[in-house]
């Protein structure tokens, strides 16, 4: 029996989760929401997290009906992420560990997503598409590591969506991606955008510049040829959202399919914040059906960053004997998925 | 006509068939229903054309690639030369490692890297960008007591003299080797060494571009 408390605060979400042997006892979260047209900055995000975290720890323990002494391990996100918000989680985790005399474990954020997805969906050995604001990776497990087969060579897919939402001043509540998804539903007019797949890798920065131009013609000093003015003027925001989604999701589905063919795998698991987009899930499901495969996906409670995934991944590590000396309880902004030795899987 | 389906690859289905009495491989890029129809048509046509063009360019440059016998844009089918005894480089590496002693396997793989590197170098010196260099897209075809290396799957390929595209091509290969053949981490450096001998006068420029693309990947901020 491992009972773990997990603290996640690598981006604009601060969440605490408690899990005991795969059973969810508590999962609480607060999101730092910025005004339309603005992104979240490290300093302000950290301030938001500092103000929320202690209340969340208390409410999670209350929800789980546990005392601190019932916990076996305290887990926190070690990276990757923004340093100031990460530090908030790490400092609270270290303090609680010393205060309650409970072992401490740092967890890789990406591994948290993967393990949570596997737990919730029951997928055994899937190709994982990890899509969020800061990451875009196609991952497969082999020989004690989660190996990255494909990824973005510039910005992440969520970053591309968030920045586009900022340009057209969409609300950040509950998330920019969600609002793009809703707006896209009211259009079916497809505008041709660049489509950039390089092997199992993708690139989004060119698409973003291109669609920026369409959304705000004339704003950037333009050296390249621009589509004709009158054509630009009658693209609605919904048309742009629809076309952006159709294009970038098709790219993601394509690289996932390439990885499936390359690795000979039949299962796909989508994790990360962008993973709760229903259009992406639908497209991926169709692709899987065409190949006789199966899709596993989760909803926003587990897709979007949460403390539970850190607790669960940490519990798995703890159960398989991983321990962390207190001196190593730091945070790191860059922490690759394939750096972690997957000690808890034997296949 | 009944066709024997060989495999469903990432791009389409592969069948064994015949073209004017000659056995051939038929690659059908079926309609992908997940994509917007307009995007799907555009991508399919573009890739079929790219594949046919690159094959011709490679053969003209003395690089082995399947000959395209016929292409039909309406049914999305490409009829090409079939190598029935060939296996993919991925299988080749795995079999070599599992059937030979460590020293023998390494010796054999180093020779293999040299050949792959030279071929990719030659391809780049002719400004052909493959676009999807993985060990699944390189065939090893036995010939006499030896083998020849054949490049396949040119759907993402294009013709470009820019060093950027060559750099990205190398980066894609490096990543594919690291993820698929993590037990043999030495493969890429030997391929690169052979590549440098064969890639022509742009060697320095391509290599520094490659370093740049690599750094782009690594420096990227990764926020959850």
From TrEMBL, chain A:
InterPro entries per record: ATPase_NBD (IPR043129), Gcp-like_dom (IPR000905), KAE1/TsaD (IPR017861), Kae1_archaea_euk (IPR034680), Peptidase_M22_CS (IPR017860)
GO terms assigned for molecular function: metal ion binding; tRNA N(6)-L-threonylcarbamoyladenine synthase activity
EC supergroup of this enzyme: transferase
Catalysed transformations (reactions): L-threonylcarbamoyladenylate + adenosine(37) in tRNA = N(6)-L-threonylcarbamoyladenosine(37) in tRNA + AMP + H(+)
Gene Ontology biological process terms from the UniProt entry: tRNA threonylcarbamoyladenosine modification
Amino-acid positions noted as binding substrate in the UniProt annotation, renumbered to this chain: 130-134, 162, 177, 181, 277
Localization: Cytoplasm; Nucleus
Superkingdom of source: Eukaryota
Entry cofactors: a divalent metal cation
Residue stretches making up the Gcp-like domain: 24-311
Name of one Pfam family that matches: TsaD
EC number: 2.3.1.234
Residues that coordinate or bind a divalent metal cation: 109, 113, 130, 305
The keyword Mitochondrion belongs to this UniProt entry's keyword annotation: no
Keywords, sorted A to Z: Acyltransferase, Cytoplasm, Metal-binding, Nucleus, Transferase, tRNA processing
Cofactor note: Binds 1 divalent metal cation per subunit.
Assigned GO CC terms: cytoplasm; EKC/KEOPS complex; nucleus
The keyword Iron belongs to this UniProt entry's keyword annotation: no
HAMAP family assigned to the protein according to its UniProt record, in alphabetical order: Kae1
PANTHER family noted in UniProt: TRNA N6-ADENOSINE THREONYLCARBAMOYLTRANSFERASE (PTHR11735:SF14)
Family stated for the protein in its record: Belongs to the KAE1 / TsaD family.
Protein name per the record: N(6)-L-threonylcarbamoyladenine synthase
Gene: LOC117139672
TrEMBL record, chain B:
One Pfam family here: Pkinase
E.C. code: 2.7.11.1
PROSITE patterns, sorted: PROTEIN_KINASE_DOM, PROTEIN_KINASE_TYR
Protein location: Chromosome; Cytoplasm; Nucleus
Gene3D superfamilies per the UniProt record, alphabetical: Phosphorylase Kinase, domain 1, Transferase(Phosphotransferase) domain 1
Record keyword Kinase present: yes
Reactions catalysed: L-seryl-[protein] + ATP = O-phospho-L-seryl-[protein] + ADP + H(+); L-threonyl-[protein] + ATP = O-phospho-L-threonyl-[protein] + ADP + H(+)
GO BP of this protein: tRNA processing; tRNA threonylcarbamoyladenosine metabolic process
Molecular-function GO terms, alphabetical: ATP binding; hydrolase activity; protein serine/threonine kinase activity
This protein's UniProt keywords: Activator, ATP-binding, Chromosome, Cytoplasm, Hydrolase, Kinase, Nucleotide-binding, Nucleus, Phosphoprotein, Serine/threonine-protein kinase, Transcription, Transcription regulation, Transferase, tRNA processing
Broad EC category: transferase
InterPro entries cross-referenced by the UniProt entry: Bud32, Kinase-like_dom_sf, Prot_kinase_dom, Tyr_kinase_AS
Gene Ontology cellular-component annotations: chromosome; cytosol; EKC/KEOPS complex; nucleus
Domain Protein kinase: 1-224
PANTHER family: EKC_KEOPS COMPLEX SUBUNIT TP53RK, NON-SPECIFIC SERINE/THREONINE PROTEIN KINASE
Family under the similarity heading: Belongs to the protein kinase superfamily. BUD32 family.
NCBIfam families, alphabetized: arch_bud32
Name used for this protein in its record: non-specific serine/threonine protein kinase
Organism: Drosophila mauritiana
